[in-house]
Specification:
Elements (H helix, E strand, L loop, with lengths): L1 E3 H8 L2 H11 L6 H18 L7 E3 H21 L8 H22 L13 H28 L2 H4 L2 H17 L5 H22 L1
Antiparallel strand pairs: 1-2
């Protein structure tokens, strides 16, 4: 059974909702402005991802794993400020990357993916993309995320899950000439407004 990839992407974007839930379960008072911003942002992401979709599909088992990953990511982010972590964000990032990489390697080996690695299929473009993911996506972006978790309100940090789809759609339009509908524009406007509201409220 396969489901539209937009559904999986929307579940990933539910991280701010889970963060709010954990804050409430932890007896923390969540401002109404933050609650409204999180709800509106999720609705905006739904407008971005669901109408029409990208045409891609994912397996139902993969969707179940995504359903588990979103609350786990949110819980880890929520607990990061409430547990003792290495003061150096680079050290904390290194531990997380090594453990995550080792788990991914073991999972890939267990499912037989290592036997499908074709070195001849590597290209300069694919290697450059891989290097970009290592340098920018991991070393820079994730380290910044770990640092922000220690120095900024969690609901403000978690808004990355709303911003990422907007940036992805903008890059798809600018680089790949992908079609942008009025619904997508409306969803993006809602997301930007909701993130601005959350940042303003949490900063206050």
């Amino acid at each position: 059974m396969r489901v539209p990839s937009g559904v999986a992407a929307l579940i990933i974007a539910s991280v701010p909702l889970w963060v709010v839930l954990y804050r409430r379960l932890g007896s923390e008072r969540v401002p109404r402005g933050t609650l409204a911003g999180v709800g509106a942002g999720f609705a905006g992401v739904a407008l971005l991802l669901l109408p029409g979709g990208s045409g891609g599909h994912v397996r139902f088992l993969s969707l179940l794993l995504v359903c588990l990953a979103a609350p786990c990511w949110a819980l880890g982010s929520y607990l990061s400020k409430r547990r003792t972590l290495p003061p150096d964000p680079f050290l904390s990032t290194s531990f997380q990357m090594m453990l995550g990489g080792a788990a991914s390697l073991l999972a890939g080996a267990a499912t037989g993916e290592l036997g499908h690695v074709g070195l001849g299929a590597f290209s300069g473009r694919s290697l450059a993309a891989f290097a970009y993911l290592i340098a920018v996506g991991s070393l820079v972006a994730f380290t910044a995320y770990v640092w922000l978790l220690q120095h900024a309100p969690i609901s403000k940090v978690s808004t990355y899950a709303y911003v990422n789809p907007v940036i992805a759609i903008f890059l798809g339009w600018a680089i790949l000439s992908e079609h942008v509908t009025g619904t997508i524009v409306a969803g993006a406007a809602i997301v930007v407004a909701s993130v601005a509201a959350i940042v303003r409220r949490e900063s206050g």
